[in-house]
Amino acid sequence: MAQQVKRAFKYRFHPTDEQAAELSRTFGCVRLVYNKALEERTRAWYGEQRRISYVQSSAALTEWKKAEELAFLAEVSSVPLQQALRHLQTAFGNFFAKRAKYPRYKSRKKSRASAEYTRSGFKWRDGRLTLAKMSAPLDIRWSRPLPEGAVPTTVTVSRDAAGRWFVSLLCEDMITPAPATDAAVGLDAGITSLVTLSSGEKIANPRHERRDRKRLAKAQREFSRKAKGSNNQEKARRQVARVHARITDRRRDFLHKLTTRLVRENQTVVIEDLTVRNLLRNGKLARAISDAAWADLRMMLEYKCAWYGRELVVIDRWFPSSKLCGACGTVREKLPLNVREWTCDCGAVHDRDVNAARNILAAGLAASACGDGVRPQRESSRTGRSSVKQEAQRVTAGVPCL
């Protein structure tokens, strides 16, 4: 049965000079309002132990527009400014709920330039989008059609570091679940092979960053040679950003194709709960791990499984998938990373990655069937007591922004 979901469709567009100037002013005002509201909230909290609500911030915004030095805030659409206050309210809500760190100020150079418009801030007519304070619609390049009859509820306009303009349209869409199948697959993430399947197939790692490393290094050298603050430095900075954008786009395209294939072919997908942030502390492998983008791979699997009626099972990070013999169940004490093939005492010869993928699949299916962990008990080094953790969890939610 088809389900209704909120889905964002992202397109490139080419603004006129007037539209680019208006959007640039809007981006700057959004950043200013966000930072000023954050400053007021921080001062109230640390100075008076007093919380400021969204309603109070909205009233303060009205007063800021009346001030002579901030009168330019009234020249742009008020909708993105109000949305900036709502985003700040959400950030503080996550902070007080201990789901995130304390909100940070938006930087003109490092933060993404964007503005969000709700229904009152744009006009959608006959497939043409016109934003508030603009007389002409945006010149959008429709790389794919919107769902039939879809009407955007929220529009987000952004500009990346390479100077490219994008518009993201949030719409209601009907997703039809994929046909049911009995197939299941376990995934072992790696660097040499991006993903090894329990079927024995190895998906080669494209290494997008390494393939463009010479081009990136050349662009960065050119950037370092330019005079600080000059127009030539800005041109060189944009060239560096273009190389990074090329790498990011190719990586995202590859991951989308891979995850879509895995979700279509399998009813159950089992993965490991990798802590990428901790793995990045390895100085020798940090660059390769970042290029592999395991976090993006998991995120795509989560929402695609939720969309298409598949089950995603996540195995505990401490499950000894590589050191566990899939034939007899023996767990080796040590298995260095440079050992890619090993022989168990029972005589079974294992490819490290294939064995890990098969063990991940077996653990995931067991946990899915009985709802209990299957990781062997181990002795704690500090207490001497056995410890068994629940090692699998179902992932059922995830709303993406493509």
Automatic annotation (TrEMBL):
Keyword set, alphabetical order: DNA recombination, DNA-binding, Metal-binding, Transposition, Zinc
InterPro entries from the UniProt entry: Cas12f1-like_TNB, RNA-guided_DNA_endo/Transpos, Transposase, Transposase_put_HTH
Gene Ontology biological process terms from the UniProt entry: DNA recombination; transposition
Residues covered by the Transposase putative helix-turn-helix domain: 1-48
Coiled-coil regions listed: none
Domain Cas12f1-like TNB: 294-360
Domain Probable transposase IS891/IS1136/IS1341: 175-281
Region of interest (Disordered), residue spans: 374-402
MF (Gene Ontology): DNA binding; metal ion binding
Pfam family, one: Cas12f1-like_TNB
NCBIfam families with a match to the protein in the record: guided_TnpB, IS200/IS605 family accessory protein TnpB-like domain
Family note: In the C-terminal section; belongs to the transposase 35 family.
Classification via PANTHER family: RNA-GUIDED DNA ENDONUCLEASE INSQ-RELATED, TRANSPOSASE
Protein name as catalogued: Transposase
Species, as recorded: Streptomyces swartbergensis
